[in-house]
Specification:
By secondary structure, this protein is an alpha+beta fold. It has four helices and seven strands; from the N terminus they run E-H-E-H-E-E-E-H-E-E-H. It is globular, with a radius of gyration of 18 Å. The N and C termini lie far apart (45 Å).
């Protein structure tokens, strides 16, 4: 009932990419990694997803070991669990010009660790500035409407 929801977010993903579609995938983890994820000790800031013809991997996600472990690599590649058709779709989408596979968040669903993968297009500097201008103008309009 009072279970704490653990979510590790990639805060930079939506800043640098416009997310067009999302896919949920399972992950192959070691026991020490699961405990560390449940404690919220992980980072997706520099992580990305690579899909080949038959497999998909979460690369460069930093999940530290729960306890000291000899020979443990916190940024090792972790296999993602997807259907073959989903992997093929991700691979084809990642081959299109300008599209990237970005991990958005890691969370638990029915005691299984899941990663939400976003298919994103990089935002150019001009697009960022345009978005800032739109937000500022919406705020100004809301301020004026509230005063009346």
């Amino acid at each position: 009932m009072g279970e704490k929801r653990t979510r590790i977010l990639n805060k930079n993903a939506r800043r640098f990419y416009k997310i067009l579609d999302t896919v949920e995938a399972g992950m192959v983890l070691e026991g020490l990694e699961v405990k560390s994820l449940r404690a919220g000790r992980a980072s997706l800031n520099e992580a990305y997803v690579r899909a080949t013809g038959a497999e998909a991997f979460l690369i460069n996600a930093h999940i530290p070991a729960w306890q000291k472990a000899d020979g443990y690599d916190p940024t090792r590649s972790r296999k993602l669990l997807l259907h073959k058709s989903e992997i093929r779709d991700l691979y084809l989408k990642s081959q299109k010009k300008g599209l990237t596979l970005v991990p958005l968040q890691i969370y638990f669903k029915k005691n299984h660790a899941k990663v939400l993968i976003g298919i994103g297009r990089g935002i150019k500097k001009g697009d960022k500035r345009q978005g800032i201008k739109e937000r500022e103008s919406k705020r100004e309009i809301n301020r004026i409407l509230r005063r009346k």
